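Q: Entry one of two.
A:
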Amino acid sequence: MATKTRCGFVAIVGRANVGKSTLFNALLGEQLSIATHKPQTTRHNIRGILSLETRQLVLVDTPGIQLGNKRLINKVLISNALSSLQEVDVILMVAEMGRWSDEDDYLLNQVKEANRPTVLVINKIDRMKDKSALLPILEDAKGRYEFEDIIPISALHDKSMNTLTNVLCSQVPESVFLFPKDVTWDRDDAFVISEIVRGTAITQLHKELPYAIYTEVENLTFDENLISIGVVIWVEKDSQKGIVIGKKGSKLKTIGEQARNRLERVFNKKVMLKTWVKVKQNWQDQQDIVSQFKE
């Protein structure tokens, strides 16, 4: 008798900077989503596939909910995050240990309206010095909603990942696998390349330009043993262009080298990567550009 398989979509949602992308990467066992201490570095609903022997989870990392930001791009990102709630089998809501805000309340109301099985994780418990303080936090969470489960975790240190994975697998429906077992994401190569370059740039520029850049693949050619890639790093102001390039091109060179190394690991091929920096004034409020981020 064939073993029954389970497969489903899981949306990872939460306010900005609670550790969603770190959790997403920890569950998958590799870095597909940009994870930094800066809020809202995730701009798309990014899907990663975790395949086990008889279970498959399609994890959807969503942009963080940030209510105070009035820029056009933020409105699009919030719309992306909330739209995912209606399209998944399970919701994984991420909150921060000891800090429940108005944005958490707003998101929880959206979760209630979606009426999907919901698991709550309390992240960053590694920061808790007094473990006895955890119990009242869990009791408070239980009073907010009938969650399927509430799990304290440290996404940064991979604590409780196996427990969380098992809980999520128990919540998705019986189904055949939607993706081959060797597939780890469902985006095209250009998207993956763009995110890797953007993530590398954010890591290098996190103190100067966390939000003012986006990346665009201008050319992409696959040969038998070589991938040739050209990527534009867009900024909003002329003054920002010099920051990205750095003194005598040093910063851009570092970004290119680190991104190329990671691309070669991802694609298992030699990569020739060229990067340019260009300016589009106030791109975060331009409809034609921001519409690219709509899901």
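Q: Entry two of two.
A:
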Amino acid sequence: MANILNIAAYRFVELDQLPELREQFRNKTAAHKLKGTILLTPEGINMFLAGIPDELEAFISWLTADARFADIEIKRSWSDEMPFNRMLVKLKKEIITFHQPGFDRTAHPAPQLPASELKKWYDEGREFVIVDTRNDFEFQVGTFKNAVNLQLNTFGDFAAATKQLDNYRDIPIVTFCTGGIRCEKAAPYMAGEGFNQVYQLQGGILKYFEECGDTHYDGECFVFDKRVALDGELKPTATNICFACRTVLTPEEQTSPDYVVGVSCPHCIGKVQSSTSTMAGNSTSV
């Protein structure tokens, strides 16, 4: 039975005195023996944490007792092992880097579309365009049926890539990502650029899996920790990652003689040197 609780959560809220706040979070996560990453920024908080259920729930109680975080939406999943290597509390300029100076996500709000409503749209055959705001390698692991792949290398490429969507300015567009945070900027940006009906999937793929399973979804959902990918039941899959080149590997690719853990895979054999660096287990995009 899985005995490690994992949470993903974010909240856009004005924060100040960040160095002092960082120390509070460092002390509290250490007291509860948690691992993962917390980003503290002037525009809010983003975090991925894992730990013993009682300890993590105690941390959540402490967090939500603060009025700034009282309404934070927390997505829970389970794993057999700790998916993070260490505990990091970082100070950043943005929750998610967007490369759009002066952008105000509140200037052109985009409504959130509940998971159940997206499923209903699919079920009814409603006309809409669904846009994956994640990186291309995440898209390749799994995505919603008929999703548009903008072939992003990083989320900072999103603004320029929206030119690919010019023919859909008057059609309902649903943006989505892993947990919702990228769409908190992507959807308002599109609304400000003249796209007339832009929505953001509430809670992202993880919330959709929680409420609707993998109906209308093909493949798995990549996550930025040692679990690598989750299925529609929010359970880790056999998908893995090459420690040498960080390419996502299917179970079939892992049977190749070119796949040597920490050394090479079919994608990088002969191209990279052996690496024992840790994987992107404490990355922060959702």
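A: Comment on entry two: Helices lie at 18-31, 53-64, 115-124, 136-141, 158-161, 183-192, 204-212. DSSP finds seven helices and 16 strands in the chain.
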